[in-house]
Amino acid sequence: MVDPNTPDSTGAATLDTAKPQPSVIGQSRGTTPALADGGPLPWPDGLPPNGVQALIRAAASVGQAIIYRPDGAVHRLPYAQLHQNALGVLAGLQQAGLQPGQTLLVAANDAEVLLTGLWAAILGGLQVSAIELPDIQAEFSAYQRLDAACTLLNDPPLLLDSTGAAARATSRPSTPGGL
Q1: pTM for this structure?
Q2: Which long-range contacts (CB under 8 A, 24 or more apart) does 165-169 make?
Q3: pLDDT digits 0-9 by tens, 125-135
Q4: What b/e string do you get for 43-67 counting C-beta neighbours within 10 Å, with b at 16 or more?
Q5: What distance in Å separates the CA atoms of residue 14 and residue 11, rounded to the nearest whole number?
């Protein structure tokens, strides 16, 4: 950055390196990477060592998920019930051939379906990603986003609720990827 108030020995303006350079998103301001080290993560005694154990512990508690429906209704889902639902979904996924480490794409608008799919994937050791399922009357671009997510994830299996799957099988617009 040139500072016109700081001339060099010839009277020309000089580069003022003391002032910060503006950054542009996605562009580095320098060649030295920024490093931050907070040291080793302290793990308090009594906490579950992994996600599976955390969900099993939650299922044994009196905790619950609180889901706010679009119509304003509040649905309370006990973790024990969510755990049982997830085990049922996981059994179906395993029966369909999914193995630990494989990717599952949960495409739904219903929070209970999203939570159940997430729990099932974690319990089964699956890699999980979630995306909003386009409405039947959605613009084509919504289906393009779903198609792009499938392409990015190498066409993983989709987990849908039964209503959404049935509706999309009969009335959704076709997409380039065949979703």
Answers
A1: 0.69
A2: 167/136, 168/133, 168/136
A3: 999 998 877 76
A4: eeeeeeeeeeeebeebbeeeeebee
A5: 9
